[in-house]
Amino acid sequence: MTERRLFAFVLAGVLATTGCERPAKVPGETDIVVSSVTLEAAPGSELTPDYGPLMDRLGMRPKSLVLPGRYYSEFREHEDRRRIEAFWQNYGFFDVVVSAPQR
Predict the structure, then answer these.
(1) CB 25 within 8 Å of CB 75
(2) For 82-98, how does the pLDDT look when each residue is reduced to its tens digit (9 = 90+)?
(3) Rounded to whole angstroms, how far apart are CA atoms 6 and 40?
(4) Per-domain residue ranges for the chain?
């Protein structure tokens, strides 16, 4: 029984330290950590969107238990704007305009 405990302890230690290193930067990536992402409807809009399905698919997202955190990148910002447009176009809003983010 003690061998099993020792093995489990060593295995837990190895798993806890594996994958903690930041992967190599992609072109355009900065050292700015994305801590939160908030999407809002335009002022005066009566839309009450459910962004739940979209948030996990964004290129820039905060870290969660399952998904790794991301760093700011202009490329990912533009990709996310296209993803948000496509999300709304799937619901029939073909003239949707996604404005630049507020920083």
Answers:
(1) no
(2) 999 999 888 888 888 88
(3) 51
(4) 23-103
What is the DSSP code (8-state) at residue 94?
Answer: T
Nearest to 77 by CA among 57, 55, 58, 96: 58
pLDDT band at 2 (very low <50, low <70, confident <90, very high): confident
Q: Across the strands, what pairs with 71?
A: 33
Q: pTM (2 decimals)?
A: 0.67
Distance between CA atoms of residues 103 and 101, nearest Å: 6
Q: 3-state DSSP call for residue 81?
A: helix
CA-to-CA separations, 49 to 10, 42, 88, in angstroms, rounded: 46, 11, 9
Q: Which residue has the tokens 């998904």?
A: 67
| Torsion over CA: 37, 42, 47, 48 (sign) | positive
